[in-house]
C-alpha cells in the first residue's frame, strides 16, 4: 500500500475513534511531512514495505537539524508508534519497526509560573478588553487556550457557576467551577464588552466571531514587554500559574488533576513549586 493512502486511512481511523480535531490535524501534518521527507529520500512515491527503521530515525534527525526541540521530536516518535501500531494490527506491514525507536531524553527544567500578585499586575495591564477577560478566565480556571477559544455561550452556566469544557485534550469533557469574581467579570463582559455577532463562541470579536490563541499570546507578550518583565509569559503559563497557586494553597493534587483535565497524576505533580521560604519552613519542622 502507498504511504499516502495509509496515512489517509489512519486519519479516518482517528476520526472514527472521536479523537479531537486538533489531535487529528497534528497527526496528519506530521505524517505528511514525513511523507515528503521520505519521497525525497527515495525519489518518488513510497510504499509501506519500503520504509525502514533507518528512515524513521533519519526523519527524527532531520527534525533536529531543523531546530525542533526534544519534546517535539518525541511527539513525532509517539505519532510514528501510533501509526505503525495501527498498520501492524491490520497486517499492512510485516512488523512494527517503530518500537525500536529510542525515546529522546528530555532535560527537566524548572517551569516558569507567576505568583498571584504578578498575575493580577499582568491582567490589569492588558489594554484589549476582550483579551483581558479571556486572560482572566485562563488565570482563574486553568483552561487550555484552545479550550477557552472553543467555549460557546451555552458552555458558561451562571446558574450552576460552572464552565463546561467539551472535547478537551484526549477528547474528554470536564466541568470547571468559576469563582464569584470571575462570574461577575464574565457577566459584565457579556453585557458591555462582547460585540453583537451571530457567533456562538463565548469569546468573539466583531470581525471574525471568534478569538484565536495567537491573538491572546501576542497580547500577553506585548504586555509583559511593556511591564519590563523578562519572563516569557504565554497562555499556558497562566494555566501553570493557576495550578501552582492551588498547590501552594494546599489543594489536594487529585482535585488539581481534575480541574486541569490531566489523565495522569504524574503530569499534575510538575506544577509543584517550592520557594526558599517554604523549604526553610520544612527544614524547621525537623
Mind sketching the topology for me?
Layout: H1 3-16, H2 21-42, H3 53-65, H4 70-89, H5 116-125, H6 129-141, H7 145-149, E1 156-157, E2 162-165, E3 174-177, H8 180-193, H9 213-227, H10 235-248, H11 253-260, H12 265-268, H13 276-284
Antiparallel strand pairs: 1-2, 2-3
Gist?
56% of the residues lie in helices and 3% in strands.
Could you explain the architecture of this structure?
The longest helix has 22 residues, at 21-42. The mean pLDDT is 87. Helix 6 packs antiparallel against helix 8 (180-193) and helix 6 packs parallel to helix 10 (235-248). The protein has helices at 3-16, 21-42, 53-65, 70-89, 116-125, 129-141, 145-149, 180-193, 213-227, 235-248, 253-260, 265-268, 276-284, and strands spanning 156-157, 162-165, 174-177. A three-stranded antiparallel beta sheet has the order 1-2-3, with no helix packed on it. Helices cover 56% and strands 3% of the residues. 28% of the residues are buried. It is mainly alpha-helical and 286 residues long. Strand 2 and strand 3 form a beta hairpin. It is elongated and about 60 Å long. It folds into two domains: 3-100, DNA polymerase, domain 1, CATH 1.10.150.130; 116-281, Intergrase catalytic core (hpI Integrase, Chain A), CATH 1.10.443.10.
Amino acid at each position: 500500500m502507498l504511504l499516502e493512502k495509509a496515512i489517509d486511512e489512519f486519519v479516518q481511523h482517528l476520526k472514527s475513534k472521536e479523537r479531537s480535531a486538533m489531535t487529528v490535524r497534528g497527526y496528519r501534518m506530521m505524517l505528511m511531512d514525513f511523507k515528503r521527507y521520505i519521497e525525497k529520500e527515495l525519489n518518488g512515491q513510497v510504499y509501506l514495505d519500503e520504509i525502514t527503521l533507518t528512515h524513521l530515525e533519519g526523519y527524527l534527525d532531520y527534525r533536529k537539524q531543523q531546530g525542533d526541540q526534544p519534546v517535539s521530536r518525541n511527539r513525532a516518535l509517539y505519532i510514528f508508534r501510533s501509526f505503525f501500531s495501527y498498520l501492524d494490527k491490520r497486517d499492512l506491514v510485516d512488523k512494527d519497526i517503530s518500537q525500536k525507536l529510542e525515546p529522546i531524553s528530555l532535560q527537566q527544567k524548572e517551569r516558569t509560573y507567576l505568583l498571584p500578585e504578578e498575575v493580577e499586575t499582568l491582567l490589569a495591564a492588558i489594554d484589549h478588553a476582550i483579551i483581558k477577560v479571556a486572560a482572566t478566565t485562563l488565570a482563574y480556571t486553568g483552561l487550555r487556550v484552545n479550550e477557552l477559544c472553543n467555549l460557546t455561550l451555552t458552555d458558561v452556566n451562571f446558574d450552576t457557576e460552572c464552565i463546561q469544557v467539551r472535547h478537551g485534550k484526549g477528547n474528554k469533557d470536564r466541568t470547571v467551577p468559576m469563582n464569584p469574581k470571575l462570574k461577575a467579570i464574565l457577566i459584565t463582559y457579556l453585557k458591555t464588552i462582547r460585540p453583537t455577532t451571530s457567533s456562538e463562541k463565548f469569546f468573539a470579536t466583531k470581525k471574525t466571531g471568534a478569538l484565536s490563541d495567537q491573538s491572546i499570546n501576542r497580547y500577553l507578550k506585548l504586555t509583559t514587554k511593556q511591564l519590563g518583565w523578562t519572563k516569557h509569559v504565554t497562555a499556558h503559563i497562566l494555566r501553570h500559574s493557576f495550578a501552582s497557586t492551588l498547590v501552594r494553597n494546599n489543594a489536594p493534587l487529585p482535585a488539581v488533576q481534575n480541574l486541569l483535565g490531566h489523565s495522569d497524576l504524574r503530569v499534575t505533580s510538575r506544577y509543584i513549586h517550592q520557594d526558599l521560604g517554604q523549604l526553610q519552613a520544612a527544614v524547621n519542622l525537623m
